[in-house]
Design the sequence.
């Protein structure tokens, strides 16, 4: 069992008098900055000079400065920019300005685990990784609920890294929901694996394969869309609420029997072996090196793949059908 921490385990007072620098103001950045600000903390947002987010952050009542200045002034610095640019920004703008005894924090372990960021030995290095997108993190904070998060300490130069990380977690509202202790290795590798095999890659390919199979079998694409994608939310919500058993309790016996007998035929040993290979690529750094190289070379593979996915038949059908359901606030 992992250690789990709550409000009573964290002392927000440890952040009193400290400046918390937030590098980035995207999905995670805005949520961290605003939650900390609402909890009475001194927050300084670091952005590049021409960032459109500067005006947005300032309109929300936050102080904004260039990244090097924020790095120099911050006692606690949280890096919330995309993984593939963290290494360059760190080396050029953050590292020359880090102060001894300060804390360097991340919401994902990628850059530390794969060596894109190599901190000096005289700073604390921690992770607070919320398990929700930033907008959801902000919404639940405002409702007084909070989202669970993961905590890890990579380097404890001051002997207080864990306590500071817990205080930060309390500041963003996470200790209200629970903070699970882990390591940078476990968080990074399990997070990438979950994204690639289930949450993003696995689910989208499974849905698309099922959709294509029905359409190839002569079924109308609109019907295929509803059966293979639209109803997925209901099933995921049931699993989220009560696990597989609650989902199976809630559907028909016909659906449950088909689940238990046909599911293993679709997700067979061949699929499991592919998952093991995906995990191996993550563990040995192959995926990280591929992703960094992809960005360094101008995203020559990624951008065409994105374009093809965005213009696929299932996406076009979905746009038409979602337009008929304005209550869903289609994107």
Sequence:
């Amino acid at each position: 069992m992992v250690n789990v921490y709550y409000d009573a385990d964290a002392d927000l007072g440890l952040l009193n008098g400290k400046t918390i620098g937030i590098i980035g103001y995207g999905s995670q950045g805005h949520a961290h900055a605003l939650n900390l600000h609402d909890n009475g903390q001194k927050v300084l947002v670091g952005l590049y000079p021409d960032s459109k987010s500067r005006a947005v952050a300032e309109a929300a009542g936050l102080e904004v400065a260039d990244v090097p200045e924020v790095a120099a002034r911050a006692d606690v610095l949280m890096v919330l920019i995309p993984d593939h640019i963290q290494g360059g920004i760190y080396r050029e703008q953050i590292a020359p300005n880090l102060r001894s005894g300060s804390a360097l924090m991340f919401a994902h372990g990628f850059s530390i685990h794969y060596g894109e960021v190599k901190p000096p030995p005289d700073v604390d290095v921690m992770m607070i990784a919320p398990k929700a997108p930033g907008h959801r993190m902000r919404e639940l904070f405002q409702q007084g609920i909070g989202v669970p998060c993961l905590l890890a300490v990579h380097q404890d130069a001051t002997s207080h890294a864990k306590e500071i990380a817990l205080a930060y977690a309390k500041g963003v509202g996470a200790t209200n929901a629970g903070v699970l202790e882990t390591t940078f290795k476990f968080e990074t590798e399990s997070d990438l694996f979950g994204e690639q095999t289930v949450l993003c890659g696995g689910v989208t390919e499974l849905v698309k394969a099922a959709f294509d199979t029905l359409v190839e079998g002569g079924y109308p694409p609109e019907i295929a869309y509803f059966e293979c994608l639209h109803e997925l939310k209901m099933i995921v919500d049931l699993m989220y609420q009560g696990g597989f058993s609650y989902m199976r309790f809630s559907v028909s016996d016909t659906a449950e029997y088909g689940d238990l007998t046909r599911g293993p035929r679709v997700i067979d040993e061949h699929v499991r072996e592919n998952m093991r290979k995906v995990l191996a690529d993550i563990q040995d750094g192959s995926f990280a090196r591929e992703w960094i190289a992809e960005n360094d070379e101008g995203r020559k593979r990624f951008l065409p793949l994105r374009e093809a996915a965005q213009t696929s038949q299932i996406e076009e059908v979905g746009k038409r059908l979602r337009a008929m359901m304005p209550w869903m606030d289609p994107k």
User: Anything to note?
Assistant: The longest strand covers residues 124-130.
